[in-house]
Amino acid sequence: MKISVLLTLLILPLPVFAQDSDSLKDYYTGEIVVTSSNEAVTKTASTSELNREEINRMDDFQAGGPLKLISGINTTRNSRNEIQIKMRGFDQRQIGVFFDGIPFYVAYDGIFDLSQLSAASVGKITISKSMPSVLYGMNTLGGSVNIISDKPSQGIHTDIKGIYGDTYGGVLKNTGSFRKFNWLIAVNYDKSDGFRLPSSFNPAKNEDGDKRDNSRILQRDIFVRAGYDFSTDNDLSVVASKSYNSKDVPVNIYTSFPRYWRYTTFNNFTLGVISNNRISRGIKLRSSIYTVNNFNILKAYDDNTFSTLLKNSSFNSTYDDYSTGLSFIPEFSFGSILSGRLSVTYKRDTHYEQPSSLQAYKKFAAENYTAGLEKNFAAANNDISAGINYSMLKIINANGSPLRGNISNVSGHIGTGRSIGSSAYLYANLSATNRYPTLKELFSEMLGKYIPNPDLKEEKSLNAETGIRYSNEKTGNINAAVFYSYVKDMIFQIALPGNKNQLQNIPKVLLAGIELNYSKQFSFLKAVLNYTYLYAKNRSDANSDNLEYRPEHTAGVTLSGIYDAGFGWQAEAYYTGSRYAIDGDTRLWRPMPDYVIYNLRISQKIGKKAGVFLRLENIFDKYYETEYGFPQEGRNVKAGVELTF
């Protein structure tokens, strides 16, 4: 009944026809903040974008892989065999991830495994750092990553891509439009029987080398978006995706307490309805309603035969997570004063878990409310963006335990920028952001190893940034930024007596640094270079100021060329500096060495509708770990074919 009422609210405005047209149709339907509209909120902060061609040339089945191209982002594969990111020192749990405007995270722990999101349907990815728009709502402490499905094409087009390597599979995408109807259908299948370790790997306690033990994956998903344009300024889109995945979890090669885990089921279902409407000459409305379900079954086996679950430490657990929400973003244009955007959002997160097949299900649930106002305008030749946001977290079910009180917070931002001559643009911004503790952080015992802490506070951050963009045909494009974040009450794992742990707030963390980007199109190649220096310190610990997995220096170089004869190439180099990790057995800090990974792609067009490519990743077979005890893939050769009809 509730869903039908909400759908009615979304659809009712659609027959209202615009009195005058705007450029709404130039945008991607699901994008909340449109970077191409030249708005002050995107001009006065660091914003990066990956387009469809850049994503496609990475030849990655997963949407998370191409993010390594962005400065300030460190991509890792963690101990649960998930692709996750850090951005300017913030964890992914502190970064808002959206797909077509729908928040993408698991209701329980606030994180979404980016390896589970197919790249097949992605048209572009925009990244907002330091000063995320208040229109995104809550839990964007460190910024936002906005993954947008591809735009519909004129007519009907079909793209097929097949890849063979350590991971192999194919993608089929069909997109088109007919009169007022448009659609996108993307189907993805990829599988790995396990990746090969570098030849320099020496056998360790829990790994003998060659093919990485317990590293298989299987992913199958379908994405459908169907849209209808009632008029120039009134449209409706339905977005649906379904994945059927499974994956193994490799063992820490050093630990004395190995875990033999496999996610035999790792599924996701998403359904959303998005509408854009002009209500009157001065009012536009973007509305969305969505539901996201993440369902997984994790089996912890007795030993490396993965055949029995008889030990006390073994289990067969089920997690079933639901996030349902809606958002309304009206935009008002009644002169320079009475103009701006409002944002009202509601989300309900529900987590069901069955720790083992012999135990009853537990239930935890929370509601999230936000209301925000954002105004972008120009004054005395300055671009200005200002926003304020109120949010609240309400725990509504703690599996029968007493409920904690509501948590609320006010956040906001102000940014300003100004053109200097015809080539340079100076900007600066200040923002206050927050992130609420997740259901897992509040209530989980984590297999009996943790003491729950339902009194956790929300994390808060005061962010400041200043930068310059310089663009000149002769010298190229230069972007430089200095950033600073003072984070209060960040949630960390604290060791307690009795071999127990607890998540607690620590008073003070500093994240600061410098980010440099340069790009230029030469006559024979395009060069893109970036470098990030990060100062990340825990100012609350008298014993150590380290923060895990935050390299002080990272850099990337991409060189590419595409020529009239159809030949193309792309060379990539990624540098990750030294960093620190905590040894799970001893709880001592371990230094992790720096490394450089080199990749190369070559491609050749065959006529107008076909092409072949070859990609070599980790060319020099470098041994490296993105998390302590979890070595990554050695040299990998991918070959593929692309067809367009």
What does this structure look like?
With 645 residues, the protein is mainly beta. The chain contains 4 helices and 36 strands. The strands form 6 sheets. The protein has a 22-stranded antiparallel beta barrel. Strands 1-7-8-5-6 form a 5-stranded mixed sheet. It is globular and about 70 Å long.
| Discrete helix count | 4
Q: Estimate the global geometry from the Cα principal axes.
A: globular
Unreliable stretches (pLDDT < 50, length at least 5) are: 1-27
Count every beta strand, where a strand is a DSSP E run of 2 or more residues: 36
Short overview:
By secondary structure, the protein is mainly beta. The protein is built from four helices and 36 strands.
Structural key phrases:
645 residues; mainly beta; 22-stranded antiparallel β-barrel; 5-stranded mixed β-sheet; 4 helices; 36 strands; disordered N terminus
Which secondary structure elements does this structure contain, and how are they paired or packed?
Blueprint: H1 2-11, H2 40-43, E1 47-51, H3 52-56, E2 73-77, E3 83-87, E4 90-91, E5 96-99, E6 102-103, E7 122-129, E8 143-149, E9 156-164, E10 167-178, E11 181-192, E12 217-231, E13 234-249, E14 260-280, E15 283-301, E16 315-334, E17 338-354, E18 362-379, E19 382-398, E20 407-420, E21 424-435, H4 439-443, E22 459-472, E23 476-488, E24 490-496, E25 500-506, E26 509-521, E27 526-538, E28 553-562, E29 567-576, E30 579-582, E31 589-592, E32 595-606, E33 610-617, E34 625-627, E35 630-631, E36 636-644
Parallel strand pairs: 5-8
Antiparallel strand pairs: 1-7, 2-3, 3-4, 5-6, 7-8, 9-10, 9-36, 10-11, 11-12, 12-13, 13-14, 14-15, 15-16, 16-17, 17-18, 18-19, 19-20, 20-21, 21-22, 22-23, 23-26, 24-25, 26-27, 27-28, 28-29, 29-32, 30-31, 32-33, 33-36, 34-35
